Amino acid sequence: xxxxxxxxxxxxxxxxxxxxxxxxxxxxxxxxxxxxxxxxxxxxxxxxxxxxxxxxxxxxxxxxxxxxxxxxxxxxxxxxxxxxxxxxxxxxxxxxxxxxxxxxxxxxxxxxxxxxxxxxxxxxxxxxxxxxxxxxxxxxxxxxxxxxxxxxxxxxxxxxxxxxxxxxxxxxxxxxxxxxxxxxxxxxxxxxxxxxxxxxxxxxxxxxxxxxxxxxxxxxxxxxxxxxxxxxxxxxxxxxxxxxxxxxxxxxxxxxxxxxxxxxxxxxxxxxxxxxx
Length: 277
Known about the structure:
Helix content is 79%, strand content 0%. By secondary structure, it is mainly α. It has one domain: MetI-like fold. The protein starts with a helix and ends with a helix.
């Protein structure tokens, strides 16, 4: 007689779904542990320490590492961010304009500067512009060049971010502002943009992190000892000492800035998701 007739349930064979998940997770941990152990056993830690972790050489970097290199890196990043934000705002508004040529020009700018490597833009600003316009002088010298170069690099990305933020604001906000007697320009400045910036604050902060790293391209503009940023400073000291410790220390300084900013971005994104829900 069949099991179904007697009421006896057939025994299940194989693993349950929960057991399969646990087995898969355990296998992944085992592979990771094996990779870490293999790396630890095969790496020549003595040579790595001699080349990248010499405390005596690291001490020689201070205080110039902070007072010159890190300070300049922060100044370059902030100035480039301000220029990029201002230019990106203009381009975003042009992109949303009802005037066709404005939209076309903004679209061409965005496609070109998003497609070009940042290094080419730095060379264009540092070499191309002075050759084409010999009488043009950047305000602030090298600092002005860096602000313009980083601003051009970031403006194309910021423009698209700002445009998306403006379009994310409900159209009823503009209609309500116009019904209260606001002009289109005043409604945009007073009503739409504040709400848009609240939406795009996380990606703008993320752009600041990217600019902080892109500031390492300043070395292609030619800088003095007092204008060096972290990468140039670390590279120069590594050449002088014939050791890579300065490069490692400079990299750690980047992490001291970028990791906290990345955490801020994540918190803002999490908060924004909670508000949406």
